[in-house]
Automatic annotation (TrEMBL):
It comes from Triangularia setosa. Residues 38-329 form the Dynamin-type G domain. GO terms for cellular component: membrane; microtubule; mitochondrion. This is P-loop containing nucleoside triphosphate hydrolase protein. Keywords: Coiled coil, GTP-binding, Hydrolase, Nucleotide-binding.
Length: 719
């Protein structure tokens, strides 16, 4: 019973009463390895009604003088943190409320005081509290202009020293039920309640539910509140204070019934503690004297482990230990994840690179890996590397869909005028499905591509009225020809019809250049995870890359020029097939109205193949029926249509083969082949050092990461 503990200057014995030595040792070891900030350590919070003795209890338990007494009733949360440090001092500061205005935040954060020891703190406490009240804007007799009764700012007292034990203790304002006219409002009440809830819902918090023994426990709201946030009752301790104020025997018996678990039982039970009373003289209120009370009836009949601050401390020490232990496995998992991450970062930095030999080897290895990715990407063999999980590395797939889009856009939109449909010619409808044109592409992440990227990705649809247009061409460019369609006339019509080829081709090239460039940058990042080196390699490649993209664009523009500006010509039999088919179909259509059937009773009627005929003189009338101009116009149209089809197909194929495939993908000057081991071997030592050399930044980073990995490994060992 009666504890032998004597309050000391620090409030703690050398034995570190609240956290066991073994755990303290572990925590210390972790802190020296910089793992401290990842340790969510448990905290104690005293909650209860106003004047129930919360501040007094915390003082009794920890030995830190908390401001207590009626008039100093807590108007904000006070957090006392103990931290192990080589130097002994006490730092006082204010943590601003989360939603503080910038102005308020600045003013409270500016507040800071440093004390040498508890004695100095105790001596200066009243003055400090006055300053804090002014700072937070709390209305008190000494600060009548303050705007608040309560504040959500937190007064933080950090006690540092070589023997401190990382305990955090929080004293919150009491929950009050009756409002004092002119001082506390409904709002204040809700705010204090929320403040209390914020603390007790944290699973690291041990809730000391403070209940004055001289008040009926049934009136104490705090037990219900604690139960709401600690459902299993694993963290809530009932602490009965002020037993000395009880005079009636029945009242004492009722309190004993609580402690014995016979009334309103709590999972972790009730403790009974006597704090320093308001009228107690500092000198004759030594704890051992105060606790003499418990030798008297009826308290002497209670079990020792429930009576006095010594017993409470033993229980708290176990509980804090349990909560710390529960935290350790979680910390261990977090440390493991951090270790994996740090190792990856370290790997990304690669081996140390001081000599040019080391640098060349390092860079050549990156280039080799890069070329491996290039080969896999060109073969669309995406199973070869995990890197291809990133869709943008699937280069050939991107090129194929760009090319399909190019082909479709070409079939649907490339001609200036819509050709007249010829029934039975087929293929005219084939392009009606699929996207109408390229969709807008965002290349802003790659400003280096500059003018190579088109700005306008849209294409106008072909216009109607081709016959009218052809008539003008015919009228304006008639020469002395025997036939109706002169090569010059056809050339001029074709030029007019293919005006959009250049724009569409530029769009297609933009899209493929972007795909290739994205691939190169991303693949490079994949094989060289060090952002500094990645940046430097990309920087040294960029001008050569751009010039190879420009070559591809130039090549495509040459094809546009050749196709659209030269005399139309083809050896493709498909052109003649088309022409003849067109003529035959037209003839058939013109003859249709003149078809006659053989009389029903004619002997030939038995053979269904010859039951229809056209008289030869009718054929003549059909052919002669057309005026010269009309005939010529149709001739130009049909020739143009047959040729356009052949030329467009040829063009689309060649743009892909000669510009995209040859210049951008698999040709000997492909930008994909640029960053290779050969390129690395060709670098002179200075250039090499500027790319692969280590600056202080990288050396430092490696050293830091190496230490971090070592620390983490050791920390995991410790746990
Ligand atoms: P809080 O508002 O809950 O923080 O309560 P305080 O700790 O400020 O205590 C209110 C008053 O009750 C103070 O005057 C304390 O001295 C007094 N008090 C607290 N605990 C005890 C106790 O165990 N016995 C006696 N006699 N007085 C106590
Ligand atoms: Mg208090």
């Amino acid at each position: 019973m009666g504890s032998t503990f004597k309050e000391q200057e620090s409030g703690f014995t050398d034995e570190n009463i609240l956290i066991s030595h073994d755990r303290l040792f572990k925590i210390d070891q972790l802190r020296t390895r910089n793992i401290g900030k990842y340790l969510p350590l448990p905290q104690l919070v005293a909650v209860g009604d106003q004047s129930s003795g919360k501040s007094s209890l915390l003082e009794t338990v920890t030995g830190i003088p908390f401001p207590r007494g009626q008039e100093l009733c807590t108007r904000y949360a006070t957090q006392i943190t103990h931290r192990r440090d080589n130097d002994s001092f006490i730092a006082v500061s204010i943590i601003p409320k989360p939603w503080a205005s910038a102005e308020h935040k600045e003013s409270v954060e500016a507040y800071s005081r440093q004390m040498n020891d508890t004695a100095q703190l105790q001596a200066e406490f009243p003055a400090i509290l006055d300053e804090v009240n002014i700072c937070m804007g709390i209305r008190t007799p000494r600060n009548p202009t303050g705007q608040y009764t309560f504040s959500e700012d937190v007064l933080k007292i950090e006690k540092c020293g070589p023997n401190e034990d990382y305990l955090t203790v929080i004293d919150v304002p009491g929950i009050f039920r009756t409002m004092t006219e002119g001082i506390t409002t409904e709002n204040d009440k809700a705010m204090v309640r929320n403040m209390v809830i914020e603390y007790i819902k944290d699973p690291r918090t041990i809730i000391l539910a403070v209940l004055p023994a001289n008040v009926d426990v049934a009136t104490q709201e705090i037990l219900a509140l604690a139960e709401q946030y600690d459902k299993a009752g694993e963290r809530t301790l009932g602490v009965l204070t002020k037993p000395d104020l009880l005079k009636e025997r029945s009242a004492k018996a009722s309190v004993c019934a609580l402690v014995l678990g016979n009334r309103k039982p709590l999972n972790l039970g009730y403790y009974i503690v006597r704090n320093r009373g308001g009228d107690d003289d500092e000198d004759d209120s030594e704890l051992s004297n105060r606790e003499d009370l418990f030798r008297q009836h009826p308290w002497c009949n209670l079990p020792d482990e429930r009576v006095g601050v010594g017993a409470l401390r033993v229980r708290l020490r176990d509980l804090l230990g349990e909560i710390t232990d529960q935290a350790f496995p979680i910390i261990r998992t977090e440390l493991r994840d951090m270790l994996v991450e740090s190792k990856a970062q370290l790997d990304a930095l690669g081996a140390s690179r001081k000599t040019s030999g080391e640098q060349r080897q390092y860079l050549a290895a990156i280039a080799a890996k890069f070329q491996e990715l290039v080969r896999a990407a060109l073969d669309a063999d995406y199973s070869r590397s995990k890197a291809f999980k990133d869709g943008e590395l699937r280069l050939i797939t991107a090129i194929v869909s760009a090319t399909e889009c190019f082909d479709l856009t070409f079939k649907r939109l490339s001609s200036t005028y819509l050709f007249v449909k010829q029934e039975g010619l087929g293929e005219d409808d084939e392009a009606l499905e699929g996207p109408a044109s390229f969709t807008n592409v965002d290349s802003s992440a790659y400003p280096e591509l500059g003018d190579l990227m088109v700005k306008d990705w849209s294409t106008k649809p072909p216009m109607n009225g081709i016959m009218g247009w052809l008539e003008t061409i015919h009228r304006d460019s008639r020469g002395i020809t025997l036939g109706n369609v002169s090569p010059a006339m056809l050339a001029s019509a074709f030029r007019g019809q293919s005006i959009k080829w250049e724009t569409i081709t530029k769009q297609y090239l933009s899209l493929t250049i972007l795909a290739v460039h994205k691939f190169i940058i991303k693949a490079l990042y994949n094989v060289c995870r060090c952002p500094i080196v990645h940046q430097r390699i990309a920087g040294s490649l960029v001008s050569e890359l751009i010039s190879s993209y420009e070559k591809a664009m130039k090549q495509a523009m040459l094809l546009v020029e050749v196709e659209t500006q030269r005399k139309p010509y083809t050896l493709n039999h498909y052109f003649n097939d088309n022409m003849q088919k067109t003529r035959a179909l037209k003839m058939k259509n013109q003859l249709m109205p003149h078809v006659e059937s053989i009389a029903m009773d004619h002997p030939l009627r038995e053979n269904p193949e010859v039951c229809q005929y056209v008289r030869p003189e009718k054929i003549l009338s059909v052919v002669e029926n057309k005026g010269n101009a009309e005939y010529a116009r149709e001739e130009i149209h049909d020739t143009l249509r047959a040729y356009y089809k052949v030329a467009a197909k040829r063009f689309v194929d060649y743009v892909y083969y000669l510009a995209v495939d040859h210049c951008l993908l698999s040709g000997p000057d492909s930008p994909l082949l640029l960053f290779s081991e050969k390129w690395v071997l060709g670098l002179d030592d200075r250039k090499l050092a500027s790319i692969a050399g280590e600056n202080q930044q990288i050396t430092d980073r490696r050293a830091k990461l190496e230490k971090k990995v070592r620390d983490l490994k050791e920390a995991i060992e410790i746990l």
